[in-house]
């Protein structure tokens, strides 16, 4: 409320968005009011992260993939790479721990995943070898109906076989709809994409 949670319209909208996020985390059919004393610092931090994330999505090189090797412990051979999203802005790199939860809460995570996956697939399409490509996918993304179609579109664009892609579900959130998760798993399987 004005002036406790901000003076400008932008500050008040951000406070309302953060209260909405807190309410969603605590359950359905709730209302949350930010406590001014503790809420202001958290609100400011989330607002700054939100601005950075939205700015990164505006720039082609704002979201970049990092590659963590997946090694077969019996042979020592690299069998694949986990693709990890990073924000790159103004000479700074921000790991997923900095922005992933906020990206999920604000429904920007799918844009981050697709941007990162596209860059990774572009890179792997120019390399020889059959390394697996592991990508993290949040449970919020699973709830969207076009995720597998987008994955298949990118695989087709870069002429990579679907069985090279391995989707890993992140554990940051609780399953809200087990039916959608199961349907997602079946859709991946039918497309030839692996689920870790």
Would you spell out the secondary-structure blueprint of this structure?
Elements: H1 9-26, H2 36-58, E1 63-71, E2 78-89, E3 92-94, H3 96-105, H4 109-125, E4 132-137, H5 139-142, H6 147-157, E5 165-169, H7 178-191, E6 194-195
Helix pairs in contact: 2-3, 4-6
Overview of the molecule:
There is one protein chain. Helices cover 49% and strands 19% of the residues. The protein starts with 8 loop residues before the first helix and ends with a strand. A hairpin with a 2-residue loop joins strand 2 (78-89) and strand 3 (92-94). Helix 2 (36-58) crosses helix 3 and helix 4 packs parallel to helix 6 (147-157). Strands 1, 2, 3, 4, 5 and 6 form a six-stranded mixed sheet that branches. The chain is of the alpha/beta class and 196 residues long.
Oligomer: single chain
SSE string, helices as H and strands as E: HHEEEHHEHHEHE
Can you tell me the residue ranges where pLDDT is under 50 for at least 5 consecutive residues? none
Structural class: alpha/beta
Helix content range: 40-55%
Q: Given the C-alpha coordinates, what overall shape results?
A: globular
Range of strand content = 15-25%
What kind of sheet is the major sheet?
A: 6 strands, mixed
Number of helices: 7
Gap from first CA to last CA: 45 Å
């Amino acid at each position: 409320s004005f002036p406790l949670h901000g003076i400008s319209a932008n500050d008040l909208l951000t406070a309302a968005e953060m209260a909405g996020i807190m309410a969603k985390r605590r359950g359905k059919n709730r209302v949350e009011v930010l406590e001014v004393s503790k809420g202001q610092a958290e609100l400011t931090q989330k607002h700054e992260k939100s601005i950075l994330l939205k700015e990164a999505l505006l720039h082609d090189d704002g979201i970049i993939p990092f590659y963590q090797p997946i090694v077969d412990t019996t042979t020592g051979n690299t069998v694949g790479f986990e693709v990890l999203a990073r924000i790159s802005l103004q000479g700074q790199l921000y790991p997923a721990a900095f922005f992933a939860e906020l990206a999920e809460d604000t429904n920007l995570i799918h844009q981050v995943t697709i941007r990162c996956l596209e860059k990774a697939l572009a890179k792997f399409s120019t390399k020889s070898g059959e390394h697996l490509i592991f990508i993290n996918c949040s449970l919020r993304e699973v709830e969207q109906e076009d995720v597998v179609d987008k994955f298949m579109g990118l695989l087709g664009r870069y002429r990579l076989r679907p069985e090279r892609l391995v989707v890993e579900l992140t554990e940051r959130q609780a399953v809200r709809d087990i039916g959608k998760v199961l349907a997602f798993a079946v859709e991946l399987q039918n497309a030839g994409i692996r689920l870790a």
